[in-house]
Amino acid sequence: MAERVTWGTIEDQTITFPMNVDDFNAATMGFSVPAAAAAALLPGDGFEIIEIGPGVAQFIISLCDYRDNPWGDYNEVNLGFLARPAGAGDDVIGSFIYRMPVDQQFTCEAGNLVMGFPKVVTRIDADYTDAQVTFQLLDGGELALSVTVPRVRTDDAAVRVETTSYSYLNGVPHGTPLAMDMSAAVVEPGDVHLTIGSGPIADELTSLGMPAEPDFCSWGEHLTATFQLGAPL
Question: Has this prediction a pTM greater than 0.70?
């Protein structure tokens, strides 16, 4: 068991690691996009895009509905790419999330200060029916992105994936190790419906060729995750 580490206090709440998320729902999907367009959205020069083919990057959209999280019960949209620290070997594979909107203030402040994650507070709706879920992200009060996926189910257990999420903390390249459930419930790519709205986020998505059919998609409910305290690279 990893030793528990206390980072400090935010708004009278003590921040400790490992941080265990005991319940969240998530849709995760990947898209093949132009590597040059992806690199244009990567800030600074501390990280580089991983090409999954000549001139092709993997764009990841993760839509999370956190139900039982020490930092709140909030919705989050992750937009990022498979990436590695600049100059690292080909065996190093992680992700750089260039946008991470959330809909609550505490997780925004904690994510910014502790992990360097690019969290901002905006409206994110997660609307459920028995058959599907729709996430809607607003940017400046206008719809930027809407994604609808079927609530597919499986008896297969989720797969525990260990990875590193990269960021800049106080301008310094940073890595946050994490272990997260990846649902085994596979969504048919043609059943994923994306709508791109307006505003800066929508413009960035359009530059990547969105809306498009994903290469893969999963939907999971009652997933778990563990975040470690990150460190400079």
Answer: yes
